[in-house]
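Fold it.
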Amino acid sequence: MLKKIKIYKKNQDCKGNFYMNTEENILKTTYELLLEKRNLNISMSEICKKSNNSPGTIYYHFKNKEELIKATLTKYIINVYFNQISYFKILQGTTFDKIKYCYNIALNFNQDIKINDNDLNKFLLLILQSKEKYPDLFLKYTKVKSSFNKVLNNIISEGIKNDELKNDLDVEKIVDIIKKDINGIFFTKYLNDTEDIEKLTNYSFALTWNYIKK
């Protein structure tokens, strides 16, 4: 009689519990350290101490500190944007629903990257520093912005075609308005803790929707 063998998923122990592998642990703790320090100038000894790994273990997974930091920024910043754009492309619903979702990205962005509100300004600072120090890495960020423009353009164009929006709209102008609104909400959320961001988001969306709806 053949003995049934249980197949476990990657990062799952014999009891069925999921665990974090060494590389994931290094990336996660490096990201946490970057937030704590509020800049990219962290030492390998700090990374080793926080991740509870030896230098040899870290160098086994990453060629050097620069490669580790870039991998961390890619995972926790660049890929977040890419994943969001990927979801846009399969977004279902009316034009109202799709544009509303675009505005809600700025409102709920911290849920996607799983950081608390106290760390949001640190996250923004990391983005700004990373763009200066690693311009090659942020070419990917530029591609994300370009993809977002195309998605918004398609949403507005389809809304006009489906007779949900005014047919005389300047599509590029509306895309620019929505982008500026989202950026404004995003930065306000980071820089002004006292602002009612949900109220601001709903108000900005309502103004835009009333302007473009048929």
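The chain is about 70% helix and 0% strand.
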